Amino acid sequence: MSLITLADAIQAGTTTATLATQGALARVGAHDDAVGAFVHVDEAGALAAAAAVDAQAAAGRPLGPLAGVPVTIKDLIAVAGQPLTAGSAMLAGYLPPRDATVVRKLREAGAVILGKVSLDEFAMGSTNEHAAQGPVRNPWDLGRVPGGSSGGSAAAVASGFGAASLGTDTGGSVRLPAALCGVVGVKPTYGRVSRSGVVAYASSLDQVGPLTQTVADAARVLRCIAGPCGEDATSLDPSGGADAEGWEAACGRGVDGLRVGVVSAWLDAVSDDVRLAVETAAAALEAAGATLHEVALPLAAHAVPAYYVIAMSEASANLARYDGVRFGHRAALSADDDLDALYAQSRAEGFGPEVRRRVILGTWALSSGYYDAYYDRACRVRRLVRDELTRTLQRCDVLLGPTAPRCAWPLGEALADPVATYHMDQYTTAANLAGLPAVSLPWGLGADGLPAAVQLHAAAFDEATLFRAAGALERAAPALPATPTGLTETP
Ligand code: GLN
Question: I need a labelling partner for 176 at 20 to 30 A (CA). Which of 100, 208, 269, 433 fits?
Answer without folding.
Answer: 100
